[in-house]
Amino acid sequence: GAVVSQHPSRVICKSGTSVKIECRSLDFQATTMFWYRQFPKQSLMLMATSNEGSKATYEQGVEKDKFLINHASLTLSTLTVTSAHPEDSSFYICSARDLPYEQYFGPGTRLTVT
Amino acid sequence: GEDVEQSLFLSVREGDSSVINCTYTDSSSTYLYWYKQEPGAGLQLLTYIFSNMDMKQDQRLTVLLNKKDKHLSLRIADTQTGDSAIYFCAESKGAGNMLTFGGGTRLMVKP
Question: Do the Cβ atoms of B21 and B72 come closer than 8 Å?
Fold first, then answer.
């Protein structure tokens, strides 16, 4: 089946620094990738839709200047959390669309901002 | 607006059947999904159903869809301890569109 990887799996950073999270589709090309955020014991909330070669579409309430998304190739999308603060600590999960109706999720990245 | 709801918790004994329920409000939902999330991990797609179907079976998993009542259920036969996880239902409006998730149901399987 389709495999999506994320890197890093865990990251701890200091407040005010920036962190980049990578999402890769390993065995298929993904024109669309999605970024979700999950707080402890809560569901996933869509942050943005990332389309290869174009600007990401952000959900209401998500700051595009804070969460920079780049989808430079058909197998890679990156999420950069800029000027991170403790409230940005969360579990970030990406997904990539393979077949039209199937999304495959990465294993997630746990971000802790100290 | 879109809303997907699930009960928070379900506890069953090993070998019994588990039934996890989900309701949604948007009648234009065309694809409905069940995902499994183990602790600290991402989501694993278990199965999906198109809105023009009312049942889908895949090994131990049976999905039932009542489109009139906007009710979706996932039945796991012969539940095992390895089935303990959080199960999310999700809906989307079209192929490859964003997913709207329910809050997740934590399934605990007792030996």
Answer: yes
Instruction: Render pLDDT for B66-83 as a digit per residue (tens, 0 to 9).
Output: 999 999 999 999 999 999
What b-and-e string marks burial along B79-99, b requiring 16 or more CB atoms within 10 Å of the CB? beeebbbbbbbbbbeeebbbb
Are the Cβ atoms of A44 and B96 closer than 8 angstroms? Answer: no
Q: How far apart are CA B67 and CA A67, in angstroms?
A: 37
Report CB contact under 8 Å: A100, B40. no
A41 neighbors A85 (Cβ within 8 angstroms)? no
What residues have CB less than 8 Å from A62, skipping those under 6 apart? A47, A48
Q: Counting beta carbons within 10 angstroms of the beta carbon of residue B75, is it exposed (0 to 12), middle (13 to 18) or buried (19 or more)?
A: middle
Which among A101, A105, A110 is the nearest to B43, CB-wise?
A: A105
| Cα torsion A49, A62, B34, A108: sign | positive
| Residue B34 · residue B89 · CB < 8 Å | yes
The CA radius of gyration of chain A, in Å to the nearest whole number, is 13
Residues 6 or more apart from B100 whose CB is under 8 A from it? A46, B2, B4, B26, B90, B91, B92
> Hey, what amino acid is at B35?
Y
Least CB–CB distance from A108: residue in B41, B95, B102: B41
pLDDT along chain A (114 residues), means of 10: 89 97 92 88 86 88 94 92 95 83 84 96
Q: How far apart are CA A114 and CA A24, in angstroms?
A: 27
